[in-house]
Design a protein that fits this description.
The chain is α/β, with parallel strands linked by helices and 742 residues long. The chain is built from 21 helices and 26 strands. The strands form 7 sheets. Strands 11-16-15-14-12-13 form a 6-stranded mixed beta sheet, sandwiched between helices. It has a 5-stranded parallel beta sheet with strand order 4-3-2-1-10. Strands 17, 18, 19 and 22 form a 4-stranded antiparallel beta sheet that branches. A hairpin with a 2-residue loop joins strand 25 and strand 26. Helix 7 runs parallel beside helix 9 and helix 11 packs across helix 12. The longest helix has 17 residues. The structure holds 1-deoxynojirimycin.
């Protein structure tokens, strides 16, 4: 098929052209129901025009070396979507004008972009956001991203990533919400609400995209793009729940993943893309492939030719082809030969048009050409970024309460490769982030304490053997009252195609920490990373240790807020920090083993360094006993938490359920609910968990059908637990459709 639009003479074209010349143009009538507008437009389209609708091209500066396009092509007025990498509204309007004014039917394009944790105001990486346990702030940060994006021509973000990640060697753990399916679903749904707002056609809303559907995080050994081995049980219990939560929250699109599950790549899986997504969950948006994932069906060995790849993907339910032109080049001949029915193409186009109508693109295809200062980095966006970043920090050690530093800490020696570093604090997939916007840790501490109170010496590189800065750093520490070391990962050590065999920091960083600790001054170590790293040896040397992740544009100010004590840290880990790399995969909700106290590695401790849910505060919270009462068909669990320490602070209660015996063995415990509350010093708050058996005590079988069984359950929070009995019969919603196994 040629890439310029020609009017082809087939019966279908004639029908479409006749339709387009006659009758009222319902699709142009904003007062008509969207379904009618879609059908009217579809009936006017030629096959060629439809094939363009299911095609996405990329345009603008490429910022992702893993996804390099073959060439940047002149934009066709007929292309369905553009991966839009410019930030210029005038440029967006120019490109969109081509579609609206130069194509026969004036169908606008939808421009998408990876605004993963911010567009220009960069928020902490999603893994960090999950550690805040603050869905409200997460939702608000996504609203800001939506507003900044839409003002710059981006109507669709390829976010949130809700891949449950349990092997931190996989570089993309940074992009998701950690190891737990429930937390990932709650955070993913908050992100969808934030991006999409009340209505997709509002000036501050964009379409969300749940990715990567499904199972990408199971890449073997944490090596990106590898095969995944996932049992049907794990698929339903762990991989799919966050996607279902995102679909329920109304996500407009879903991205199919690169990986192959049990021999069927996700991008060619009718089970995932049709049976589960549409038939079982009633998803009404469209599915886009990941970058080149249709073409890659050939490398995965399930398609001998691009035509075969095309047929498999579109038949499976994959609606839009990202950048590889496999649909554009093959669909026409496949339909002509009868290998693919035009109805399948119509269905894909219908879904794409539906989202375009819902976004208001037909009514308002263009954007106002606002100056940069009115589009992004507004003061309130920066404040939100600062507040969210401070909430994501996880205090891991605080010996002798060396933190907070307080108002007058004396002189601070600020050291390490991340101390005066703007670029790496942004983290991978930092949208249109610009390091010149970033408040470094040095900036943050200087603005908190004044230039004379902070002595900065880099002292240590990220990696390599250059120890020439050690002695200046040690001299600085000796002349100061406290050392703050900013250590960790470069931005590019995590993210796509950034797997690492070892979670240990380079030897030079550990050596540096050891030498600084030998100076005899209190040592505060901040770890900035996109994944859990090995901390056991570092924790021995540090008086205080805090994970600050990759905190984004306002990272340095947030660090100053927490170190000074203006903000009491309240983050808790959304992912386990293993004792060492060899302990991977390490996650709390393991299925029960035959001999729970045996079988661990002999040569390392059996417990992780810091488990899911761990995190200290500048105050102490005391949990009372859990009370459980039956209320109608439900059980209500309550616990009183008292702030017994010196500072006001926020505490998140994580509620776990443990099902003692079941037909299909259950994990030792599973997170089912959480709540964060602010508790002033000396006061108590009651936390409540209403346990609905159908929702909180049931589990999926390998078909995805929910099972609820009577028996003893424990509800667990803050180291306390209480047992209760579920007696059947209990009503369970069995309206969900049955599916076949994968
Ligand atoms: C490939 C990545 O896997 C995906 O997450 C991203 O959205 C696309 N490229 C588009 O950049």
């Amino acid at each position: 098929m040629t890439k310029s639009v020609s009017i082809i003479s087939s019966a279908a074209v004639i029908v479409a052209l006749v339709a387009s010349c006659t009758g009222a143009e319902v699709y142009k009538d904003p007062s008509a129901p969207v379904g009618k507008r879609v059908e009217d437009l579809l009936s006017r389209m030629t096959r060629e025009e439809k094939i363009w609708q299911v095609t996405q091209w990329t345009y603008g500066k490429n910022m992702n070396e893993n996804n390099v396009e073959k060439e940047t092509k002149a934009v066709s007025p007929y292309v369905g979507s553009i991966l839009f990498r410019s930030t210029n509204p005038a440029y967006y309007n120019m490109v969109q004008r081509k579609a609206v004014e130069e194509s026969r039917l004036g169908i606008p394009m939808i421009c998408g972009f990876d605004a993963i944790h911010g567009y220009r105001t960069i928020f902490p990486i999603p893994l960090a956001q999950a550690c805040s346990w603050d869905t409200d702030l997460v939702e608000k940060s996504c609203s800001v991203t939506a507003a900044e994006s839409r003002r710059s021509g981006v109507f669709w973000t390829f976010s949130p990533m809700v891949d449950v990640a349990r092997d931190s060697r996989w570089g993309r753990v940074a992009e998701g919400y950690g190891e737990d399916p429930y937390l990932s679903g709650v955070m993913g749904a908050a992100a969808v609400r934030g991006y999409q707002g009340e209505s997709l056609d509002s000036d501050n809303s964009i379409a969300a995209c749940l990715k990567h559907f499904a199972g990408y995080a199971y890449s073997q050994g944490g090596r990106d793009y590898q095969y995944t081995e996932i049992s049907s049980q794990s698929l339903w219990e762990t991989v799919l729940p966050p996607f279902e939560a995102g679909v329920k929250a109304g996500a407009a699109t879903v991205m199919s993943s690169f990986n192959d599950i049990s021999g069927t790549p996700a991008s060619a899986s009718p089970y995932l893309l049709t049976e589960v997504l549409r038939d079982k969950w009633n998803f009404d948006g469209f599915v886009v492939s990941d970058w080149g994932s249709v073409e890659q069906l050939q490398s995965q060995g399930v398609a001998a030719t691009p035509a075969e790849a095309c047929e498999k993907a579109i038949e499976a339910g994959l609606d839009m082809d990202m950048v590889d032109d496999v649909y554009l080049d093959n669909l026409d001949s496949l339909i002509t030969s009868g290998a693919v029915s035009e109805k399948v193409l119509d269905e894909a186009v219908r879904r794409i048009l539906m989202v375009k109508f819902r976004l208001g693109l037909f009514e308002k295809p263009y954007i106002e050409e606002l100056p940069e200062e009115e589009r992004w980095l507004l003061p309130e966006y920066r404040t939100l970024a600062r507040n969210l970043a401070a909430e994501t920090f996880v205090l891991l050690e605080n010996k002798d309460e060396v933190l907070p530093l307080g108002k007058k800490p004396g002189k601070i020696a600020l050291l390490g490769p991340l101390a005066d570093n703007a670029y790496d604090l942004m983290g991978s997939w930092n949208g249109q982030g610009d390091s010149s916007d970033v408040v470094t840790i040095l900036d943050g501490l200087v603005s908190e304490y004044g230039r004379n109170s902070v002595k900065y010496v880099r002292g240590c590189p990220f990696e390599g053997n250059d120890r020439s800065g050690f002695s200046a750093a040690k001299a600085a520490v000796r002349s100061c009252d406290v050392a703050v070391l900013c250590m960790g990962e470069r931005m590019k050590w995590s993210g796509e195609n950034a797997s690492r065999a070892s979670l240990a920091l380079p030897q030079i960083q550990e050596d540096f920490i050891r030498e600084i600790a030998s100076c005899g001054k209190p040592v505060v170590v901040l770890i900035s990373s996109g994944r859990p790293v090995e901390l056991s040896r570092i924790a021995e040397r540090a008086d205080a240790l805090m994970a600050i992740w990759q905190p984004g544009t306002e990272g340095g100010n947030a660090v100053a807020d927490v170190l000074s004590g203006k903000v009491n840290p309240s983050g808790k880990l959304a992912i386990t920090f293993p004792y060492s790399s060899e302990q991977q995969p390490s996650f709390y909700n393991q299925r029960r083993s035959a001999r729970p106290f045996m079988g661990h590695y002999q040569d390392i401790p059996k417990t992780p360094a810091y488990e899911f849910g761990y995190g200290l505060s500048y105050t102490d919270f005391e949990y009372g006993e859990i009370r459980v009462n039956a209320e109608g068909e439900n059980f209500v669990a309550e616990v009183d938490v008292t702030n017994i320490g010196p500072a006001d602070g926020s505490e998140t209660v994580l509620w776990f359920i443990s099902d003692h015996y079941a037909s299909i063995s259950r994990p030792v415990k599973e997170l089912k609910h959480f709540e964060k509350q602010f508790i002033p010093a000396g006061e108590s708050r009651t936390f409540r968990f209403e346990i609905e058996p159908g929702q909180h005590l049931s589990y999926p079988d390998s078909n995805g059908d929910m099972v609820l069984e009577k028996g003893t359950f424990s509800v667990i929070a803050g180291g306390h637990s209480a047992d209760f009995e579920l007696k059947l019969p209990y009503r369970i919603d069995r309206t969900q459709k049955q599916t076949k196994t994968i």
